[in-house]
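User: structure tokens for this one?
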Amino acid sequence: MARTIRCPNCGGSHDLANPGILLVVCDYCQTTIYWDAEGVARMGSRSVLPEGDTRLFMGATGSFQGRAFRVIGHVRYEHARGGWDEWYLELDGGHDYAWLSEDERKLTFERQQKPLGKLEPSRFSAGSRLEIAGKTFVVREVAAARCAGAEGQLPFVVLPEETYPYIDLTNEDGSAFATLEADEHDRTNVFIGTPVPHGEIRLDTPRPEGRQDLSGGAREVSCPHCGAPVERPSGREIQTAVCAYCGSQLDLTGAEARAIGINPEQKPNFLLEIGAAGKIDGVRYEVCGRMYYSDAEGYASREYLLWNPEKGYLWLGEESGHFLLSRPTNIAPRMSLDAISGLSPKTAVKIGNKEFRYYETVRETLRYVDGALPWIASVGDSFTVTTLIRPPELYEVEWDGDEVEYFLGRYLPAEQVWKAFGLKPPVTVGGGVHPAQPRPDNPTSKAVAWALFFMGLLNLLLFGASYPKEGTRVAEFRPGQDCFTQEVVSNPFLVGDEPVMELRGRAPVSNGWVYANVALVDDRDKVQAEAGCEISYYHGRDYDGSWSEGSTKCSSYFRAPPAGTYRMLVKAERGDNPAGSEGLYLELYQGGMLSRYFLLAAIALLLYPALVFYRTRLFEARRWAPVMEDDDDDDDHDYFFDFDDD
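Assistant:
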């Protein structure tokens, strides 16, 4: 039988959902009723929850992964960078209990583990590792959150307006989360969960009237600096709004707006205006915030915060006319922040099941901001950014000591951005190479380059195989002086089945030439093949010294006649200086290969792949130039064989 208690303030009756309930917020007067460490019931202050960007609500029923649930408790935490809601679920009619965390439209299904002792946040920092329930988790945030309020029934005690330390963690592949939260009893409540798509949560009834309508109109607050009205958009949680008149950044987390910074007088140029809408991946997004950053070396970048009520936030980065579309990810590096930020450029780093390459680590400072943001932001805020690339993907780690966030982005061609937001292309486009910019490789040209490369390689192999193969000598002949006045015939010789023959000749000519016409005639005196060979050699001296040209040898290839018995029929010619011509000596070889043609073919075939390699190497050199002191060839990454960016 369920235990029943009465509110000590108004007398309202409440049935406890289970024996583990330690806090109840009265449905009638919102008084907090809780049990202290000694089990004594106490009455706290009224708990009035602010409106939040939540999908669930108290008493909501529905199903999740085939299991029925009912929301019986709710607590909201807020901190400097935002806030989140935790919903206590009764599963299967009270046979089981779990938690559903809702943070910036992201849902996490969590199970509460056995509580630990007092939480000591000083022992942890962003990026450190912790073993929980046999799993390794990476610390993403160490901070303290204010309990903004609670409702319903909770299995631990947290009081409104009290501040509690907490630690957020994720495992390396982003498939699991863990949260350590302190409570009023100095215990550490441990939650382990997994991300849940919105589509897996099915509600039986819509949000009741009187609760926040996410499609409602905007509200206004007054700027405490100049008194001008500042629009506070509804439909999403806003913690920072910027006055359009004086540029003051307003903290909206308190009861009244508080100015925490002011923009410089000179406004940066932005491609997109606040409120501009565009379709990205088929989804309509609206620009709700703009930021301008710079680092210590003067490099500047712009960032647009995009919002869609169903999909949440996207980040569109702009740098030198290049664009990067990013969203948060839960996948963490497999090394500490100190280790990863100390790497050399191009060092391989495993992120999930993908290999990225370290690019740089810089300290970025916010110089300008406008619009409305779901976190506290003011000019002068700075954080460390580590960039890893795997074009067209880019992975970023952002941290400021207490919190670390991971972002996974992809390069977005400028033409797609202009088209998405209905803009005209600018007169001048950005130059340089973006770290995540894919190489401008055409798939057809890459395929052709690969085909030509392998064909060229084949010809090189044939050249190597044929180069030492001279063939077999089948005949030799010294035609003498008579060949210059008449046809001279050699003795018979045998020709085999090899398809190629080579005619070689030599003569000790000096400042003269000899040309030998050779025909192969069969036993019926019919010519079956012909070849020619010229020997030419000249030499002398001039004011530059000795010189010479030509050679006393010659060579000529021709198709062999059918196998059989043949004789050489020789008729030769010579120049005006006959010296040495009488020593003409001819040889016939069979079975050799014309290796030089393989070499020439290989050179011709490899020209295009070489051009592709050069363009690739030049493109990569430009990509890495900003972070490399000397972008030389001391790189273990083989760009020639890495035609693909996948």
